[in-house]
Amino acid sequence: MKLSKATRYLQVAPLAILLFAFVVVPLSLVVVVSFYTYLHLIGIVPDFTLVNYIDVLSNLVNWKLYLSTLKFTFFTLAITLALGFWIAYFLVFHVRNILVAIGLFLVCTVPFWTSNIIRMISWKPLLGKYGLINQGLMSAGVVDEPVEWLLFSDFAVIVSYVHLYTLFMIVPIFNSMARIDKSLIEAAVNGGATRWGVVWHVILPLCKSGIALGSVFVVTLVMGDFFVVTVMSGGLSGSVTFGIFNDLKFLNYPRASANAVVLVIIVLIFAAGIMRLVDVRKELTR
């Protein structure tokens, strides 16, 4: 039965109201405040100015924070994509029993039964100067003294990101792979394709939607994170959100808002670029 136009509007009204109240309004307020003036000992002055954006885009320290954020995003995206693809591939095509595959998939979600903070901090006893990894390396005679770059470094930050966000890559790729018709793979094998040929020419193209969605999840989560960089780098590395936090501490809300607007624009550019490469809606309805 065909729904009337009024009925369709009523069905989407609750979601539209929620999006307007919790997305459009807050973002609009951030944009408005980003054009205000901040005066020391006075606070926010509702006077239109571009000084905040000029300060954000011309500050060398701020550029370094953006480059640091992009670096963490790139490495985390590359590693989670590799892990997510091959874990999903194993679960879908090498585990014959669907119940076992689902069970193993659920095992991947076990770390999410605890908070992000606990999972992140759990790496400290492993990566610390006198942690389990350093003790094992010294016991095996691989190194003579503790390796200090394991913790409070960019390496520790990336390890934590990969641990926290790999599941966000596994889930959409697993969903895409599970929908692949196995007869296509059999036809490719019968046509003389090697295992790598099947992966490259059959499975990978049919998983584009899952890869795109997983990439969007990981990019947005990493670029919007603050706590992991602060704790796991020991303050030796920074991110854009760290700069925003510092502005908020000094009540410089206009500059923090301008920084947040620039960050949102960069994230949207990343997401739009990924979605432009892959028509997710078309892939999901195919």
DSSP helix count? 15
Biggest sheet strand order reads 1-2
Unreliable stretches covering 5 or more consecutive residues: none
The chain-level mean pLDDT equals: 86
Please explain how this structure is put together:
The chain has 286 residues and is an all-alpha fold. It has a single domain (54-284), classed as MetI-like fold. The protein contains 15 helices and 2 strands. The protein has helices at residues 5-33, 51-58, 60-93, 98-108, 116-121, 124-127, 132-139, 154-178, 182-190, 195-206, 208-223, 227-232, 240-249, 253-277, 280-284, and strands at residues 37-39, 43-45. It has a two-stranded antiparallel ribbon with strand order 1-2. A hairpin with a 3-residue loop joins β1 (37-39) and β2 (43-45). α3 (60-93) runs antiparallel to α11. The radius of gyration is 23 Å and the shape is globular. The two termini are 24 Å apart.
What is the gist of this entry?
With 286 residues, the protein is an all-alpha fold. The protein has 15 helices and two strands.
